[in-house]
């Protein structure tokens, strides 16, 4: 079994906020697989099933973001899973909107939900998939107001595209492992058109 966790805040008021990107990814993943969320278990909503021969458990902590580890750690122990079986999906201020990035391990990088998971597990050695939300263009806006705000229409489109890409990456992680998935999904999806133009741009005058 593999455990995939989406981080976010419970409640309707947070549903469309930037900070709930992790929730939206696992919601879309469950919808794509045709699974329904079950009753709360160990402070989390849970759904599970089998896809491509791999049993998956999806969870959304019903704690607030900063206490996410209180839901994740007990479930990992209950199902007798190891850190290698865990993928945590969360938003990331330091990635531009539209990008996703998978890492094998690492620090929380200021993401408090991820920090809580690390604290309660006692280790940072688990995979995490970050969905870029960018930073506020207006330097006067606080980070809290930004992450708990609803993005404008143009950003919502890009964010929805990156969340769909994160769903693909989560399924690839479950089937192929972390390294193969990193190779496929950590590239900038807009890089290919730029690379096609680069040979012309680099021609010397008169060539």
Question: How would you describe what is shown here?
Answer:
This protein has seven helices and six strands. The protein has 207 residues and is of the alpha/beta class. It has a single domain, classed as Peptidyl-tRNA hydrolase (Rossmann fold).
Number of strands: 6
Strand content: 15-25%
**Total discrete domains:** 1
CATH class: Alpha Beta
Rg result? 18 Å
Under CATH, the homologous superfamily reads Peptidyl-tRNA hydrolase
Please state the oligomeric state of the protein chains shown.
single chain
Shape: globular
Order of helices and strands: EHEEHEEHEHHHH
Question: What's a quick, concise take on this entry?
Answer:
By secondary structure, this protein is an alpha/beta fold. It has a single domain, classed as Rossmann fold (3-Layer(aba) Sandwich). It has helices spanning 21-33, 69-78, 112-121, 143-147, 153-176, 178-185, 191-201, and strands at 2-6, 44-51, 54-61, 86-92, 100-103, 127-132.
């Amino acid at each position: 079994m593999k455990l995939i966790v989406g981080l976010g805040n419970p409640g309707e008021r947070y549903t469309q906020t930037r900070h709930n990107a992790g929730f939206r990814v696992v919601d879309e993943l469950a919808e794509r697989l045709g699974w329904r969320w079950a009753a709360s278990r160990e402070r989390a909503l849970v759904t599970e099933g089998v896809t491509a021969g791999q049993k998956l458990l999806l969870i959304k902590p019903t704690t607030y973001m900063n206490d996410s580890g209180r839901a994740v750690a007990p479930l990992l122990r209950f199902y007798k899973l190891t850190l290698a079986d865990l993928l945590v999906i969360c938003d990331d201020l330091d990635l531009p909107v539209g990008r996703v990035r998978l890492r094998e391990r690492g620090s929380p990088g200021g993401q408090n939900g991820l920090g809580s998971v690390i604290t309660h597990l006692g280790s940072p050695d688990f995979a995490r998939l970050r969905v870029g939300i960018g930073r506020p263009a207006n330097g006067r806006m606080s980070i809290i107001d930004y992450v708990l705000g609803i993005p404008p229409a143009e950003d919502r489109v890009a964010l929805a595209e990156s969340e769909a890409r994160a769903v693909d990456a989560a399924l690839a992680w479950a089937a192929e492992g972390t390294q193969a998935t990193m190779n496929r999904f950590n590239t900038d999806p807009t890089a290919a058109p730029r690379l096609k133009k680069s040979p012309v741009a680099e021609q010397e005058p008169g060539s």
